[in-house]
C-alpha cells in the first residue's frame, strides 16, 4: 500500500543498520516491514502467509509481537526525527536508530489469516534517549493486539 506523506522509515536506516529480520531492507529473507509517518501517527501494513499459522485460520502471536516490535522501533525513530525537525522526504538516511528495551503486547482477539493487518503507532512520550510508543494491530475494524514499546535511541 502506498502512502505519499513520507518515505518508509526503514528505507532511511543506514545500510549497516538495515539487516533486521523484521524490518531491514537489506534482509531479503525477512519481513521488510515498512513504517510510514502519516500526520502525527505511524502506519504499517502486513499480509501474513499461512506459514505463520497458530490455530488454523489465525496468526501466530510471535509474528504479531515481532510486527509490533519493528513498527515500534520504526515509529520511535520517526518521532525522534519529527522532534529534531528532520523532514523524512528530504533525506536519504536518518541519523537515528532505535532498539527495543521493552515491549508489552496484549492479545485482544484472534488475528485472522488472509487479511492485511494494519499497525498504528502514537507517540506517548520522549525523555532523552527513551521513546515510548503506543500501538495497535488491527484486522479490518477489529483491534487484535495492542502494544507498548520503550525504544532507546542508540548512541552515535
Ligand atoms: C548497535 C547496533 C544496533 C542494531 C540495530 C538493529 C535493531 C533492530 C531492532 C530490534 O529488534 S532490537 C532487538 C531487541 N533489543 C535488543 O537486543 C536490545 C538489548 N538491550 C541493549 O542493547 C541495551 O540494554 C539498550 C541499547 C536498550 C540500552 O542500553 P544503553 O547502554 O544504550 O542505555 P542504558 O542502559 O543507560 O539505558 C538508557 C535508559 O533506558 C532505561 N532502560 C533501559 N532498558 C530498560 C528497560 N528494559 N525497561 C525500562 N527502562 C529501561 C535505562 O534505565 C536508562 O534510563 P535513564 O536514562 O533514565 O537512566
UniProtKB/TrEMBL annotation:
Under CDD domains, the record lists:
PaaI_thioesterase
Q: Which InterPro entries match?
A: HotDog_dom_sf, THEM4/THEM5_acyl-CoA_thioest, Thioestr_dom
Question: Which keywords has UniProt assigned to this entry?
Answer: Apoptosis, Cell membrane, Cell projection, Cytoplasm, Fatty acid metabolism, Hydrolase, Lipid metabolism, Membrane, Transit peptide
* Localization terms from the record: Cell projection, Ruffle membrane; Cytoplasm; Membrane
Q: Where are the transmembrane segments?
A: none
Reaction it catalyzes: dodecanoyl-CoA + H2O = dodecanoate + CoA + H(+); (9Z)-octadecenoyl-CoA + H2O = (9Z)-octadecenoate + CoA + H(+); tetradecanoyl-CoA + H2O = tetradecanoate + CoA + H(+); decanoyl-CoA + H2O = decanoate + CoA + H(+)
Membrane topology label: Peripheral membrane protein
Is Transit peptide among this UniProt entry's keywords?
yes
- Mind telling me what this protein is named? Acyl-coenzyme A thioesterase THEM4
Q: Which organism is it from?
A: Pseudopedobacter beijingensis
Amino acid at each position: 500500500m502506498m502512502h505519499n506523506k513520507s518515505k518508509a522509515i526503514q528505507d532511511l536506516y543506514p545500510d549497516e543498520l538495515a539487516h533486521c529480520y523484521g524490518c531491514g531492507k537489506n534482509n531479503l529473507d525477512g519481513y521488510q516491514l515498512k513504517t510510514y509517518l502519516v500526520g502525527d501517527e505511524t502506519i504499517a501494513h502486513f499480509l501474513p502467509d499461512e506459514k505463520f499459522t497458530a490455530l488454523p485460520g489465525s496468526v501466530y502471536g510471535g509474528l504479531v509481537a515481532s510486527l509490533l516490535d519493528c513498527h515500534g522501533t520504526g515509529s520511535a525513530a520517526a518521532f525522534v526525527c519529527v522532534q529534531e525537525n528532520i523532514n523524512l522526504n528530504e533525506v536519504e538516511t536518518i541519523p537515528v536508530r532505535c532498539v527495543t528495551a521493552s515491549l508489552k503486547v496484549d492479545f485482544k482477539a484472534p488475528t485472522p489469516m488472509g487479511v492485511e493487518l494494519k499497525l498504528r503507532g502514537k507517540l506517548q512520550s520522549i525523555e532523552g534517549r527513551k521513546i515510548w510508543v503506543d500501538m495497535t494491530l488491527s484486522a479490518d475494524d477489529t483491534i487484535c493486539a495492542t502494544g507498548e514499546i520503550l525504544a532507546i535511541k542508540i548512541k552515535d
